[in-house]
What we know:
By secondary structure, the chain is of the alpha/beta class. The protein has 3 domains: 24-166, Rhodanese-like domain (Oxidized Rhodanese, domain 1, 3-Layer(aba) Sandwich), CATH 3.40.250.10; 169-286, Oxidized Rhodanese, domain 1 (3-Layer(aba) Sandwich), CATH 3.40.250; 297-413, no CATH class. The chain is 26% helix and 15% strand. The protein has 13 helices and 17 strands.
Amino acid sequence: xxxxxxxxxxxxxxxxxxxxxxxxxxxxxxxxxxxxxxxxxxxxxxxxxxxxxxxxxxxxxxxxxxxxxxxxxxxxxxxxxxxxxxxxxxxxxxxxxxxxxxxxxxxxxxxxxxxxxxxxxxxxxxxxxxxxxxxxxxxxxxxxxxxxxxxxxxxxxxxxxxxxxxxxxxxxxxxxxxxxxxxxxxxxxxxxxxxxxxxxxxxxxxxxxxxxxxxxxxxxxxxxxxxxxxxxxxxxxxxxxxxxxxxxxxxxxxxxxxxxxxxxxxxxxxxxxxxxxxxxxxxxxxxxxxxxxxxxxxxxxxxxxxxxxxxxxxxxxxxxxxxxxxxxxxxxxxxxxxxxxxxxxxxxxxxxxxxxxxxxxxxxxxxxxxxxxxxxxxxxxxxxxxxxxxxxxxxxxxxxxxxxxxxxxxxxx
Length: 413
């Protein structure tokens, strides 16, 4: 009898449908179709991030304007965009009708992806992350789907008690990072553009470079040109190329703690444990902590072969290699002067009549054996037009071969 009961119980367990847990993407992002079907939900709080003038011109029906400035508090020492106190955030969100049982949807009006992810992180910090999502693609995606917009202002929201709870485990500071530098499974990600990561510009910091051991995932590389987040497979490639693997803990930083939130959001889409270094590079350099990869004191640029020839004629630079001015195909160089230094590498010399065979490796990063110059984006790129080929600098910190000729210099600063 007992065996029969146990068998029935097991059968019931085995026959019970298994409810799959929702993937992070399904919780963190919503589509225009989802929002359209839930626009009348009583618990929905829809917030637009961007310029107030844009909101007043057009917004999704029922949306309210979230003033981005209300999500930041300047700290002692001149730090910008730091998280306000819980009491301040409670007051801000309560006036927008946010409560503990709200379903919060954030969206940008126009090209404000990282401010929107910063707003998402702020709600997450307050304990509302599981109730907050971003409209993928923002207002442009909503309009592209044929949905209506309005200039009509919604009635004032009824302020409701929020009583948020801080979650400091989502934020890293300088001491926390210093204690983990060099540890396995700890990955430090610099979300700034390559020119800042590579040291061509100090940005908001007092010194050029990046935090020790940091790898670069520019915040613009986790979304497509329409502001939609890349697919999970595409994002995984981005993170893998930066040395991130399964089980790693990520800390992302940028200039002041805004751009990095896009990388944190993308990492969380993939299920990574990710924190924001809220003080970011501004805090690290003001503490006079060690940085790597700084290139001082001049910026780099792309210059034409005509300017290269002129500098050679004036003996204003030194060529490190065996290429002659006539046979130079592509070089990395900085002008030699009292306040700058030189680094250069040439492709193999070839006769003027032979068509150079550019290999894939010739169009990718290559090492430069000179102090503080081990990254391609830290130096000037000099190119010579070759029939059918032109080295092209792109935003992903790599070189690509292009069949399009150019006859003018390009700047990367």
